[in-house]
Amino acid sequence: MANLDSGMNDDGPSCSENDHEVRDFAVNEASCERAAAIFRALGDPQRLRLLLILEAGQCCVSEIASALNEPLPAISQRLRVLKGERVVKSRREGKHVFYALADEHISRLVANGVMHAMEELS
Amino acid sequence: MANLDSGMNDDGPSCSENDHEVRDFAVNEASCERAAAIFRALGDPQRLRLLLILEAGQCCVSEIASALNEPLPAISQRLRVLKGERVVKSRREGKHVFYALADEHISRLVANGVMHAMEELS
DNA sequence: CTTACAGTTAAACAATCTTGCAATTGTTTA
DNA sequence: TAAACAATTGCAAGATTGTTTAACTGTAAG
Fold first, then answer.
1. Which of B19, B48, B67, B69 is buried most deeply by CB count within 10 Å?
2. 3-state SS class at B15
């Protein structure tokens, strides 16, 4: 990552552009796209509410729908978006499809975001 | 944090609705809105690139613009969005306006998101 | 096979967001 | 005060997103 504090001139950019930076650039480029896609998926109150339910354990679609008191297709759509970004994973069991957060990393991201918000608002 | 593996019944909902949950509901309601707003602000590749620059230290608008090789008004707009959600803060110093990440919490959120993406893509 | 239940998908419409360019504000220096 | 530089704002065009209703698929039970 760039070191902004050093090498700050009055005229030029403070962000040096050496080999290391250039090498990292491609990585960051792809990572930014991916990270932004995840953040975008989390960036909706309704989807986030849904994720908070999954934070407590896996759920099937109709359970989520009744917990959030919303029509089932709406929930299914949101889950589709979340699954498209691999924020949640699903598993069919008989008639039911169970959804869960994709991994611990996502779980932590959600928890951190909401906790930050809660601290702010407290 | 929730334990996903345990507490799953065959018939009933896995998400219990006891007093504790109900009490937390109002808090979560507001927190979701706020957290989603933050995530939404982070959910754009261009804004995230900008934030990665700030991750390394404060910068003025024209520095950011030249580092990202983009027109200054575009950067200013993005900063406005980010500041609107209190993801960044600004400080005027003479002709220049310096921007920085709002706090450590935001910094960690950004770093975690991008690191997750990098690991995924590695 | 048919009924009922669980979930997904499609299409249309509204709403929101992003961007680019031009004009404007604010700040310093001559 | 005028000129130059730094940054912000306004506005229109275009793209993305979210929501809703209805139709469709898949699965188990009668």
1. B48
2. coil
DSSP letter at A56 equals T
CA separation, residue B94 to residues A71, B21, B98 (Å): 55, 51, 10
Q: How far apart are CA A50 and CA B105, in angstroms?
A: 23
**B37–A contact, CB cutoff 8 A:** yes
Q: Is the dihedral of CA B68, B73, B74, B76 positive or negative?
A: positive
Report how far residue A61's alpha carbon sits from residue A106's, in angstroms, rounded to the nearest whole number: 19
Give the closest of A31, A48, A55 to B121, CB-based. Answer: A31
Q: Are residues A67 and B106, on separate chains, in Cβ contact within 8 Å?
A: no
Return the number of other C-beta atoms located less than 10 Å from residue B61's C-beta: 18
pLDDT digits (tens, 9 = 90+) for B48-88: 999 999 999 999 999 999 999 999 999 999 999 999 999 99
Tokens 């589709």 locate to A80
Query: pTM score, two decimals?
Result: 0.84
Whether residues B43 and A45 touch (CB distance < 8 A) is answered with no
Q: Between the CA of residue A46 and those of A109, B3, B17, B36, B104, what are the distances in Å? A: 16, 22, 19, 9, 26
Query: In chain B, which residue's Cα lies nearest the Cα of A3?
Result: B56
Alpha-carbon distance A74 to A57, whole Å?
Answer: 20
Contact A58, B4 (CB under 8 A): yes
